[in-house]
Every structure is written in structure tokens, then in C-alpha cells.
Hints:
There is one protein chain. The chain is an alpha+beta fold. It has ten helices and 19 strands. It has helices at residues 2-8, 21-28, 53-59, 72-78, 93-102, 113-122, 126-147, 156-169, 231-250, 257-270; strands at 15-18, 36-40, 43-48, 64-67, 83-85, 107-109, 174-175, 180-183, 204-209, 211-213, 216-217, 220-225, 282-284, 291-295, 308-311, 314-317, 321-324, 327-331, 336-338. It has a six-stranded mixed sheet with strand order 4-3-2-1-5-6. α5 links the parallel β5 and β6.
Amino acid sequence: MLERFIEKLPKNIDGALIISPENRRYFTGFDASDGYLFATKNGSVFLTDSRYIEAAQSTVKCCDAEEQKMKLSEYAARFDCKTLAVEADRLTVSQLKTLRKALHGIKLTTVGTDKLIDSFRAVKTGEEVEDICKAQRIAEEALNHILGFIKVGVTEKEIALELDHFMLSHGAEALSFETIAISGANTSKPHGVPTDKRVEKGDFVTMDFGAVINGRHSDMTRTVAVGEVCDEQKKIYETVLKAQLATLEILRNGLKCNEADRAARDIITEAGYGEFFRHSTGHGVGIEIHEKPNLSPKSEVTLRTGNVVTVEPGIYIPEKFGVRIEDMALITENGCKNLTNAPKELIVL
């Protein structure tokens, strides 16, 4: 992967200096809070400090791993680098200032680096898909477990904590993000934060959560009901499910992201709830929980075989309730493979 990335660098650029934790891990497979990856046309090296060097040398396979004992400019000289690409989207102003000082006399360019890396990360390898699926299986086990835990009287925080504990105690190396577990009127907030509110009879409970395996994330959302549901709840749930299934049906290599978004949005709009669908239909998933491509109304990006994207339409009625249903899908040449194996029919606990 690293060699292919270097081959794609423009002819007038000698190499890239990668410092963001997510991109370092993507190329090296090694997770650490400190490090530099010199990826150049004359050789590459992963640099870190004494805390991580032993682990790095046993993990990094794409290049040598060394304890940093020289200035960055000396490493650039080792690989005869006059021009280095850096990550514009992931550097702070302070970091860029520091790099310019440390690499005085070397031209640093931000043009196109992030776009090139994102293009690699957007198309998953078989190993990446396998890890995402392993993470998703843990999340699905957590869902099965939590359905027996949710009842009138438990709090949103207790539901979130139970999901987190289950995933971490059943093989997840980390959580994909801060688990969302909200109920009743709080489900009208797409990214609501769990509170001490207790679940009541007639509540929807929305749970958005995921696990991490080898740095790869999973992501799923399910909305369930407790005790009973009214006709409006049933109608909105079925509308969201219809929109989600319609989007999954058309996903394929060559489809534009905004066309995927439109498939869900049109159904929700036709049902009279267009103004209450307040986010994009989906996003890429991988080393980060939000990656390219995005299934958004403005995106003209074309889906490619190997993309892994979420499909998560939702309807959110302020101060009443909301519904979101989310799966992950692997884009294939003629369609998609749903990586989520969990029921989507309305469950009333």
C-alpha cells in the first residue's frame, strides 16, 4: 500500500511526511501517539521515540522502524528530498509552523496530499473488510444482549454503559465513538447524548454504536420501542426502513453519492417528512468512523468497488421522537453486500 501511494505522488514531489495518527496507522498498521512516516521515492522509514520503538519494530512491515535520533532535516537529506508533501487537512497551523522550521530549506506542499491518501483509504482491502466485519459481529452480539436489558425504568446512561461494557469485554479493542443511547423525546436529536432520563412505556430507544478491531471501525444504529407504539411511530419507522432499503437496493460501483442520498431523501420527502431528515444518508467507514465517500446531497463523487459506507436515513420530530436505522454496505461491481446482520423490523420490547 505504501509503495503504491509513493508511486502516485506527482513527479515534482520527492516524498511525503505523514504525521497524523490515523494515516500513520493506515500505512504502517502501528498505533502510537508519536511518530513520523517518511514515505519517499528513495526509501521510507517510520520514526518514533523510545517508548514505542520495540513495539514499532515488531509491527511495522511496510518499511524500517527507527528510534528518532536525528533532526527531521537530516532524514530528509538521507532520502534526498527537496520537496515533501504534507497533510493539509490534518495539520494544525502550529504543527505546520513547526515542520517548516524543522525542515528549513525543504519545500513543503499541501496540494493534493489528503485527496490522494483519502482515495487509497476509501477503497478497502479484503483484510480491512474482514476486520470491519469482525468489529460488526461484536456490535451485533451487543445488540442481542441489550434487547434483554432494556426495560421501563433503566436510564439512557445505563444502556450506553451496558453496550460499551459488552463490546469491550467481548473482543473490541476500543469503541468506534461515544455510544449514543437515547429515548423518548431525546430520540429527536440525531446525535443526542445519553442522560439520566429513564425509559418509559411507549418510548422509542435509539442506539448508535460500534466496535474497533485492528483499528477498523464498525457503525450501526437501531431504534426499538418499549411497551407499545402509536400509529405515527409505526408510520415513521416504516418510512425510514423503506428509505434505507431503497438506498441499499441501488448502491453499486459507478453510482454518484448524491444519487444514493436522493433515493432515501425522496421517499422520506414524499411521505411528508423531508424537513425532518436533517443529515446525509451515509459516510465511509474504516480507520476512522467518518471517512470518504459521503452519501450527501452535494457529493458528485462516484462510488467505487471496495468502498464501505453506512446507510442511515432518519426522521426526527422535535420534542416528540425520532427514528434512525443504519447498516454498513460494501460496494461491489453490480450492487452491494450488506455487512450488517441484525433485524430491522420494528421490535417492541
